[in-house]
Amino acid sequence: MGAGTDTVTSEKAPQRFPSPASNKVATCGIDYLIIGQGLAGTLIGYRLEAAGHRVHYLDAPEQTAASSVAAGIINPITGRRFVKSWRIDELLPEARRLYGELETLLGVKLWHDTPLVRTLFNRGDENDWLARSADAGYADYMEDHPALGRIPDVTVPAFAYACVRHSARVDVSLLVSAFRDRISEENRFIAGSVDYDRLPDGYDRIIFCEGWRSRFNPYFDFVPPGGNKGEVLFVTTAEAPLDRLFKHRVFLVPQSDQSYWIGATSENNFTDDLPTPAAREYLTDRLREVMTVPFTITDHRAAIRPTARDRRMVIGSHPERPRLYIFNGLGTKGASLAPLGSRWLLELLEHGQAPPHEVDVRRCLDLK
Question: Which of 69, 174, 229, 279 is exposed most, by the fewest CB atoms within 10 A?
């Protein structure tokens, strides 16, 4: 899953905000308030701090956020037609660099280079893969005869296997929690909800990074509401964990704690962000079709991915309120999209350079 944030609406006034002057990191620059400290809020906040600005954050940690459930998969080749992820040649180096900086800042391991092995179900799949991998623009990302490691020891045999190169896993949940610890210690984080009728004073600019809950934001109500509910399982086995990502009906993503992330479901029509028995049963049945060793379900989680109707990020300033900005719509590929998206927003904030039209929030005026 991709990653989102988790700000809630409320009729109550928000809790008292720390003074912008209390920021211990910067002594000059613009005062920013970021509403929503998920993946999007964390990355643009870090970039603004590095540029010398004073940044505070408002979020509601008790609410479920996509960032806390996301697998953080970086997958350059996706879909049944084996196409390159959008702008992957640009996304990958930006992601590696930015997550590397945050690893140094926070003292945690976030980026895990991990091969992604996927199954090919029939001769048609195999032919399509081979044809695509012969394309000069694809060859560096695709491997026809991958090393499987222990995959055959714990999963059912497949017709054939292929490998996606330059794949990785980003520990999104660890990033968000470690960054939150840091800004909390510096008195720059407030746990609370936003009152849209009484936006906090004392900030030059406010950036909304609210994930799917941006549908409740009256300032950006011209952005078509999105959201996709995903549910995942966490399981353990008695076997040593795989050393690579594996996709066969579902994703098997080894975690740092020796468990597996299993997922994910996709539901556009939802009424809440709670786990459901139906999704648990579906994922369990799919996993039983794949794994040949016993497994134990240790957790079942759900969250809403922040999506836009045209499946592109939403970045930019309000057309009539230049103090207000938005960074949203990361969807299922948040771990790879957010670094580049946050750079585009920084360039807008610092230099007035508009983001590409396909992600500019103003395109949404034509989508309503």
Answer: 174
Q: What is the pLDDT of residues 117-151, one digit of tens each?
A: 999 999 999 999 999 999 999 999 999 999 999 99
Phi, psi (5° rounding) for residue 28?
Answer: -150, 170
Q: Please state the pTM of the whole predicted model.
A: 0.90
pLDDT at residue 159 above 50?
yes
- Buried b / exposed e across 131-154, counting CB within 10 Å, b at 16+? ebbeeeebeebbbeebebeebeeb
CATH superfamily of the domain spanning 20-69+172-225+309-366 = FAD/NAD(P)-binding domain (3.50.50.60)
* CA 290 to the chain's CA centroid: 26
Task: Compute the Cα dihedral for 327, 329, 335, 338 and give only its sign.
Answer: negative
CA pair distance 77, 86, nearest whole angstrom: 10
Pick the CATH number of 228-305 from 1.10.443.10, 3.40.440.10, 3.40.50.2300, 3.30.9.10: 3.30.9.10
pLDDT digits (tens, 9 = 90+) for 200-209: 889 999 999 9
- Give per-residue burial for 28-57: e unless 16+ CB within 10 Å, then b: ebbbbbbbbbbbbbbbbbbbbbeeebbbbb
